[in-house]
C-alpha cells in the first residue's frame, strides 16, 4: 500500500489525482493533503479521504479548516505554512509526493521530497524551470524517482528507451530530437493585430484542456510550452536545439521522440490528465485511470503546423532564457507570473505580457544558479523589476 501526499490537492491536478486513487483503493491511501487557501475544498476532501494531515499554506485558512474538522468530529492534524509543506513531503510516513502546487511556492517542498528520496510525481513546472540543475542533482544524489505528470513530458517519458528511464540523460541514446506538441491555445487562428484586445475571459477559455486561470493564460501566450521546453531540457538532458515545438490542434498526440534510425515514437490518448497521473503513480506497471479509450475513427484527422514565434513571442523568450542559462529561466518565470497576474487583473494588455518579460530579461543579468539562495534572489529581483516595468507601461 503506497502512502500518498498531494501538494495542491484542490487544484485540477490534485482533484484528478484523487479520482485515480479512488479507483485503486487496494494500492494507495492518502497520507496528507495540502492547499493554499481553499478551505471548503480541502474540508470536503478531508471528509472523503481522511488523511492523517491537512496543510494550508495560509494560516488563517488553516484555523478555519481546523474548526470545521473539529465540528465534523474528524481527528485530522492541521498545519500551516511552507515548513509544514516541506515536512509532509519528506516524512517517513509518505512514499509518493504529488507536486501540484502552481508557481514558485511548489519549489521548496519538491526539493524536500527529492532530498528525502521520495517518488515525486512532478506537475509543478516552476520547480524545474527555476532550479533544474539543483533539483536534478538532489534527485540523483538521494535516489529519488522523479516522474513527469505534465502530459507532454509524460508522453516523452513513455517513448524513451525503457532500460534507461532512471538515468535522466538521453543525449547519447540514439535520439535525434524531442517534439513537444502544443494545441496553440484559443488564439492560434486570430489575426496577430487583434491580440492587443484579448480579454482575460477569452484567454482562460482553452479549446482542449480544463485548467486553472494562470496556466490557461500561459497556454494562450504559449509561455506554457516555453516552460515545457526548459523542463524537457532538465528532465531528459537534451540541449535546446534538439527540442522542437509543433502545433497540433487536436491534442491527441501528446509528444514524440524522433530517433536517429528514422523511427518516431508518439504517445496518444484523449486529453485527460488522469492518464499521465495514473502512469506516474503505477510506473512501471499500469492501472485504471477512468479515461475512456481513444476512438481514432471519431478523431478522424490529426493536423500539424509550425510554431510561429511572431504570434507567440513568449515561446521565443523561453528558448532565449534556456540558452542564456544560469538564473535566466528563474527570471523569465518570475516576470511571467507578475505579468499574467497583472493581465488577469486588467492592469495590462495581453500583448504586454511578453513585453514585460523581455524587458526584465534585458535589465537583469543572469548569474550562476548553483544555490537556492541565488535562485530565490533572482526570483525576487525579477518580480520587483517586472512591477516597475508594469508601472512604466501603465503610465504611457
Q: How would you describe this protein?
A:
This protein is of the alpha/beta class. The protein has 2 domains: 2-148, 3-Layer(aba) Sandwich (Rossmann fold); 152-190 and 199-220 and 236-308, no CATH class. Helix content is 47%, strand content 15%. The chain has helices at 12-23, 39-49, 59-71, 82-90, 107-115, 125-141, 151-159, 200-203, 213-221, 223-236, 274-282, 296-299, 313-324, 328-344, 352-363, 372-395, and strands at 2-7, 28-35, 53-56, 77-80, 96-99, 119-122, 145-148, 175-182, 243-247, 253-259, 264-268, 305-306. It has a 7-stranded parallel sheet with strand order 4-3-2-1-5-6-7, sandwiched between helices. A 5-stranded mixed sheet has the order 11-10-8-9-12, with helices on one face. Helix 5 (107-115) links the parallel strand 5 and strand 6 (119-122). Helix 9 (213-221) crosses helix 14, helix 13 (313-324) packs parallel to helix 15 (352-363) and helix 14 packs across helix 16. The longest helix has 24 residues, at 372-395. The protein is globular.
